[in-house]
Automatic annotation (TrEMBL):
It comes from Comamonas serinivorans. PANTHER family: ACYL-COA DEHYDROGENASE FAMILY MEMBER 11, MEDIUM-CHAIN SPECIFIC ACYL-COA DEHYDROGENASE, MITOCHONDRIAL-RELATED. This is Acyl-CoA dehydrogenase. The keyword Oxidoreductase applies. Transmembrane segments: none annotated. The lineage of its organism: Bacteria, Pseudomonadati, Pseudomonadota, Betaproteobacteria, Burkholderiales. One of its GO terms (biological process) is fatty acid beta-oxidation using acyl-CoA dehydrogenase. Residues 47-129 form the Acyl-CoA dehydrogenase/oxidase N-terminal domain. Keywords: FAD, Flavoprotein, Oxidoreductase. Belongs to the acyl-CoA dehydrogenase family. Its cofactor is FAD.
Length: 430
């Protein structure tokens, strides 16, 4: 039997290096640069590229990818330990080559892309030279992909795309978009849509506006219109009608990476809160001496440790089974717990900091709004909870009896039948 909560010494040395590097060199970037995804901005090139090179030299670039794609092929537990450090800095994922949505897009290009698509899109994406966009959600709804109406119609040797997409992140910086569109309205619902690669400079693409998320100072989520956008037929990613299968693959390894990074984000806010409450006085007493403050600190610490254990255990299960279907319940549980964890820790941090906590001079309001992003971007929390409940209940059997199988009179009757004679024999000998 093996059961361990320890990291081996070699990997711990890597983690210690990552921690120091992120704190000293990566965290400051968010205070002097705009969006991490603005990879062609001269300032980003000047400051970010040397750090990416350092990460590459250290063998820590794009660790979620297999060696054939230039990564380390780390399992999810190692990625978990690494990502919980990266989660504290906005630029860390891009510096380590593992930022969403590019990591997922790279995954589907690696899986379904033709040799030409890989050469043209995957290679520069993996090198960090370009970024990409996943254009799926529509203004009329995102949680239910069956209501999407954007079309891709075959015309000779081209696909012609028409429709509107909503919250397509990073369109303004991306070199290409992976667009989900109805290619055969007559097919069965899950075979109606296809994925098409659309180069960003294709005529007919119109950014209606870039929508800001929360306090984002560079609005990056595009409301975008595709009008007679023509791409060559070979720009289909995967087979025709395979959009749902491709979308599932896209979630592959990245299924709980947001959760891993959320641990780092929440821990950073928690650390700030601890410093504050041991530093601030009210009515002659330190905030940390007040019981209701202590309760908030204890609740945050306990919730963070609980969530971390759930994430790491789920990562361990993914590594063990190599079959996401067997870990569906655990992954859904992680996704359902994630927004609440960040929300509660960010909200306590904000409140315990008082007026400065609610101000734009502190990162707590952003933490609170980020928690809502976590409850949406990977699908609404409700959907994940339904998955957990369905999987959990699937392991139980209903009773056909009028009273429950655990009804106490029945259990007493059963116990009596099992041990009654032995007790009577004992009674007779006393
Ligand atoms: C920061 C951010 C970045 C994003 N980036 C991208 C991107 O790059 N590309 C992209 O395509 N999309 C992106 N999205 C969109 C995201 O995928 C959608 O927000 C998500 O799928 C939900 O769709 P919706 O916003 O239309 O909400 P709706 O589908 O309208 O759902 C609204 C609410 O209804 C409830 N609800 C919905 N379905 C159910 C259900 N089955 N059971 C119970 N309750 C339910 C939930 O409370 C849900 O929050 C991003 C979103 C955010 C917040």
């Amino acid at each position: 039997m093996s059961w361990s909560f320890e990291t081996d010494a070699d990997f711990q040395a890597q983690l210690d290096w990552i921690d120091e590097f992120v704190r000293t060199k990566v965290e400051p970037l968010q205070f002097v640069l705009g969006s991490p995804y603005d990879v062609k901005n001269p300032a980003n090139i000047k400051l970010v590229r040397p750090l990416q090179d350092e990460v590459k030299r250290r063998g820590l670039w794009a660790c979620h990818l297999g060696p054939e794609l230039g990564g380390q092929g780390y399992g999810q537990v190692k990625l978990g330990l690494m990502n919980e450090i990266l989660g504290r800095a906005a630029f860390a994922p891009i510096v380590f080559g593992c930022q969403a949505p590019d990591s997922g897009n790279a995954e589907i290009l690696a899986h379904y892309g033709t040799a030409e698509q890989k050469e043209r899109w995957l290679k520069p994406l993996l090198n960090g030279e370009i970024v990409s966009c996943f254009s799926m959600t529509e203004p009329q709804g995102g949680a239910d992909p069956l209501i999407f109406t954007t079309t891709a119609v075959r015309d000779g040797d081209e696909w012609v795309i028409n429709g509107e997409k909503w919250f397509s992140s990073n369109v303004r910086f991306a070199d290409f978009f992976i667009v989900m569109a109805v290619s055969n309205p007559e097919a069965s619902p899950y075979q109606r849509q296809s994925m098409v690669i659309v180069p960003a400079d294709t005529p007919g693409i119109e950014i209606i506006r870039n929508v800001g998320f929360g306090a984002e100072h560079v609005p990056t989520h595009a409301y975008i219109r595709y009008t007679n956008v023509r791409v060559p037929a070979d720009h289909l990613l995967g087979g025709e009608g395979q959009a749902f299968v491709v979308a599932q693959t896209r979630l592959g390894g990245g299924r709980i990476h947001h959760a891993m990074r959320t641990i780092g984000h929440a821990k950073a806010l928690f650390d700030m809160t601890c410093e504050r409450v041991i530093s601030r006085e009210t009515k002659g007493r330190n905030l940390s001496q007040l019981q209701m403050v202590q309760e908030k600190i204890a609740d945050s610490w306990i919730e963070l440790e609980q969530f971390r254990l759930l994430v790491l255990r789920t990562a361990w299960l993914i590594d063990k089974h190599h079959d996401y279907k067997l870990v569906r319940k655990d992954i859904a549980a992680v996704k359902a717990a994630m927004p609440k964890l960040l929300h509660d820790i960010a909200a306590r941090a904000l409140h315990l900091h008082g007026s400065i906590g609610v101000s734009s001079e502190m990162p707590f309001a952003k933490g609170v709004i980020d928690s809502f992003f976590l409850g949406l971007a990977d699908g609404p929390t409700e959907v994940h909870k339904v998955t957990v409940a369905r999987e959990v209940l699937g392991a139980y059997q209903p009773t056909t009896d009028l009273f429950p199988s655990y009804h106490l009179p029945r259990r007493r009757e059963h116990a009596q039948a099992l041990y009654g004679d032995a007790l009577e024999d004992l009674q007779a000998t006393l």
